[in-house]
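Practice record 12: protein with adenosine-5'-triphosphate.
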Amino acid sequence: MIRIERLSVRLPGFSLGPVDLDVRQGEFFCLLGPTGSGKTLILESVIGIVAISGGRIRVSDRDVTGLPPEQRGVGIVYQDCALFPHLSVEKNIHYGLRYHNGSNSDGHARCRDLVERLGLAGLLDRSVTTLSGGEKQRVALARALATAPSVLLLDEPLASLDPCFREEIRDLFRSLHRETGITVLMVTHDFTDAHTLAERVAILHDGRIEQTGTADAVFRRPATVFVADFVGMRNVLPARRQNGVLTVDGLNLALPAPNGSHCYAAIRPEHVHLQPENHENGEAGIAGRIRSIVNQGLFAELAVDASGVTVKAVMLTSSLMELGFRQGARVHLRIDPADVHLI
Ligand SMILES: Nc1ncnc2c1ncn2[C@@H]1O[C@H](COP(=O)(O)OP(=O)(O)OP(=O)(O)O)[C@@H](O)[C@H]1O
């Protein structure tokens, strides 16, 4: 497990924290956030290569706050792998053993097992400079695990891989985690990676954690406007609450409102359903006009003006064509109240 308590790091142009984070024993946890939000600084604090200004860090029930990196029992894999270019694959994998306290024969047996498990046997004599992106990631993973760390940190390990390797390495992380039960803290920009791999996630914004929870809960029930935007809600609209009814400004969308002071209605674009103006079935919905259409291949994103409010919707490009939707066309929007999340 990793327990971070009131961690703060002060740098000339950036302040991290205070951050509290609890990654349970054997958990796969993802730290998400936009660029520059402080994700890597948290990993660097755990591994011990950044000077912290306050707080405590525990790894597997040991207070490691003042310890040098090699005594923390933490392995790390970086986005660019950071392999030693002058060493072979085998020497890269064995590199950490010389600084490690455990017995060398255990270390070598573990390396043999990792080489087998990660399919690296045929590459051991190769120079790491000749490897593909996916192969480099597997070598970096073997090197990080060679010293039997109790926790593994992954710093955007999938970001620079092409989609084919990305899938392969994602599957590898998943099976390795399942088989070894190691605690993993992974940093990523990508909500899909987090959704596929993580049991829980934390969303970081400007050096602070805005929300922690299961990937599903954060995706469906973001706690703040920032998180809603980050998880792709696309429509975060100011709303008024009056006499137990919530009205989304301009949209004539009246919803029963629970007690509380909600002031935003967040709606995913796939939950905005569009019909032609002259559609014969069902209720009329909210009148709107298509302002723009961005074709993204399988899907198209539409911006629709409805009483001065811009509402984003996505639909299959094939449906868009069937319905003959074009820029300027008049449409009706339907939004199920159950799909409106209040913030
Ligand atoms: N050694 C340093 N000295 C000064 N500022 C730094 C240092 N390291 C990081 N920063 C700054 O701290 C902020 C957070 O950096 P960090 O690398 O943790 O962000 P990140 O969320 O990992 O971003 P990215 O997703 O782009 O990697 C950034 O503004 C960065 O420029």
